Amino acid sequence: MTTTLDLIIEGGTVIDGTGAPRRRLDLGIAGDRIVRLGDLSGVPAARRFDASGRIVAPGFIDVHTHDDRLLLDAPQGPHPKLSQGVTTVVTGNCGISLAPLQSSGTPPAPLDLLGTGAWRYESFGDYLDELEACGPAVNAACLVGHSTLRVRRMNRLDRVATAREQQFMAADLDAALAAGAIGMSTGLYYPPARAADTAEVIAVGAPLTKAHGIITMHIRDEGDAIADALAEALQIGHALGIETVLSHHKLVGKANHGRSVETLAMIEAAGRKQSVCLDCYPYNASSTMLLPARIAQSDDVRVTWSKADPTAAGRSLFALARERGTSPEALAEALQPAGAIYFAMSEDDVSRILRYPATMVGSDGLAHDVSPHPRLWGTFPRVLGHYARDRGLFPLETAVHKMTGLSAGRFGLAGRGIVAENHYADIVVFDEQSVGDSATFDQPTAVSTGIEAVFVNGKLACQDGESRDLHAGSVLRHGGAR
Ligand SMILES: [Zn+2]
């Protein structure tokens, strides 16, 4: 039987996402699938895309995002994810998900990082249904946030949840998993979940075990107390017996620089008795809500947004405090609610963590910030250009694996992340020589270079940075739930 091909991507060199060496292959696509691989010259097709001299790879999977709300919009102009070659995102990280939570006001920070006015989903299934109905720009695999469940079920957040509240949260998670959520995320570092203890997380997360869900964790401390925080996260994953993802692994504060040697050794040891992996963004600055406690750990702090003083966005907190004759801590209080970028990591740790075999790439970008961290627009081309090509941290095949096949395998995204027959046609075509990030701390939304074409489910979604189809994505429901 012969299938009529809708599209042939021809002449390119395929890096297939498994980490295997590159090969010369044409791709034959019918509908949303890759159906033929090989020399397809002379094979008829409705359209042909010339990828001569270019790398053809699986579309990138951004395993760490806060795109819950971005996915509901179809933004004008270039798209922060498509323009990087990203075709799938994992949402709901760090304990923060848009659903299930109905609120007419603004929920407490850091939930407000998802923006305002979209807290309207009483059930997780409602959110997935709406996402599916509007057609997201990229594929979405969605996590339920533990902090969101706490805000939904608890009248105050400064204590451990009662047994009854834990049961309610577990039932919410169970329903979300049945609707297609892929797992749960936690953010024990953040105020809404700081009072939760280890036992609470294990009790709330109990439905993950039977459903074979995943847990991603923004651990309780990434500074002086990181060893204890890491041990707690590993204990939670081990108790639940599920895949455990340590989110945006990093070491914050000068006193902790270099300690990735110790933390990666802990992860390596744990990996012998449980399934654990991690993600990382390729920058030595972090970004989240403006937290006075983080200021002293940082060489510089940049304001990304402020409700109280919108003019502060993009400015150095230290410079602004000097101008105004106040302390950075007092200014941080006055700017609330607000977000910031913190320069508090060492490049050696970033490189060491990125190179670690179980490390995937996740942007952690914050799409609703006025002056966002450049990781929102530059993460994936930066790994390919700066880290793989220019610095030689690893071969390009390894870089691609860390953003495709490794990620799809760990997150259970069937048929994604590898160029193979019968897999979905999520494809990026890029120029190995010119691929790179353009976004900087001063120009945070500059479009990356070298990403020539991006196909989502067989449809041309982005070409040379310009969006072509903002609705080609699918909701990737866990276990094929509907
Ligand atoms: Zn986080």
TrEMBL record:
InterPro entries: Amidohydro_3 (IPR013108), D-aminoacylase_insert_dom_sf (IPR023100), Metal-dep_hydrolase_composite (IPR011059), Metal_Hydrolase (IPR032466), Metallo-dep_Hydrolases_sf (IPR050378). Keywords: Hydrolase, Plasmid. Signal peptide: none annotated. Residues 49-459 form the Amidohydrolase domain. One of its GO terms (molecular function) is N-acyl-D-amino-acid deacylase activity. It holds the Pfam family Amidohydro_3. Its EC number is 3.5.1.81. CDD domains: D-aminoacylase (cd01297). This is D-aminoacylase. It comes from Cupriavidus neocaledonicus. The gene is dan.
